[in-house]
Amino acid sequence: MGSSFTERLKNFFGLGKKVSEELFEDLSDLLVEGDFGAAFAFKTVDALRAICKKEGLSDPARVREALAALLEKQLCPVPVIAPSDLTVILLLGVNGVGKTTTAAKLAARYRTLDNKKPILAAADTFRAAAVDQLKIHGERLGVRVVAHKQGGDPAAVVYDALEAAQSGGADMVIADTAGRMHTKAALVEELKKIDRVVESRAPDARYIRWLVLDSTTGRNALAQAETFQAAVALDGLILTKFDSSARGGVVFSLAAELGLPVIFICDGEQYGDIKPFDPKEFTKEFIGFA
Ligand SMILES: Nc1nc2c(ncn2[C@@H]2O[C@H](COP(=O)(O)OP(=O)(O)OP(=O)(O)O)[C@@H](O)[C@H]2O)c(=O)[nH]1
Ligand SMILES: [Mg+2]
Asked: 123-137: string of b/e by CB count within 10 Å (b at 16+)?
């Protein structure tokens, strides 16, 4: 996480501060800057003010602890993926957020840590270089990539990947999708088609749709999530580029405002730069306790 924001939050509760109305007002401003968004920042500070009043907290350090507890409660518990003979993961998201890189990271991670046999599906048939990009990852990782040529039907790629998995002993299909800004109708149509393929070819598969968001885009990430959530049922979020200047507050508002769990956090371009999201750890780091 961008350390400068955490540093500011830490200093905010530093020595010499008094618990006063001014402190709560300044905290609202700080949280807005930390990508909370105004409405959620005010709501959070209102709740914090009420807790402080009820518990008679007059020490800023205790207020900081109360804020940490309050924020941690906002985060959704991370769902556990139930074991299945076949897991299908569809990665969605707008241009450049890190879908293709994340697809490769997930393949590497599930293979190494969970003993899975993944197949990558190049369901981004929109961009010419997209298939090659995924194939390069596949070669490096020794993971099979199912691809068609540019302009093909993404649902047909998923179909072939499912067939390849079923006949080739793989138990996971990770599908990369195109990042162009869809119109909602086109997005719904494309995903419905993929849904139908998964339902007919692999009705017993564990089918998961994760939205990939670039954490450095702050409030924009929330707007993207709202657009996708209105179009399709999402199962969770993957936040990328946490090694850059992310301020982190958007994670709390994504959870509180959309009810979506964060599943993974990515913090670099290497295959190993993906970590399961831990609400407690994340909050500690955000508040500066870690
Ligand atoms: N620093 C950093 N860079 C990342 C991370 N994840 C992805 N990237 C970089 O972000 C850029 C875009 O990543 P892609 O995986 O191509 O993104 P995409 O969503 O597939 O992009 P499109 O297919 O064009 O929509 C690449 O340069 C990646 O190396 C991350 O966690 N940290
Ligand atoms: Mg891509």
From this structure: bbbeeeebbebbeeb
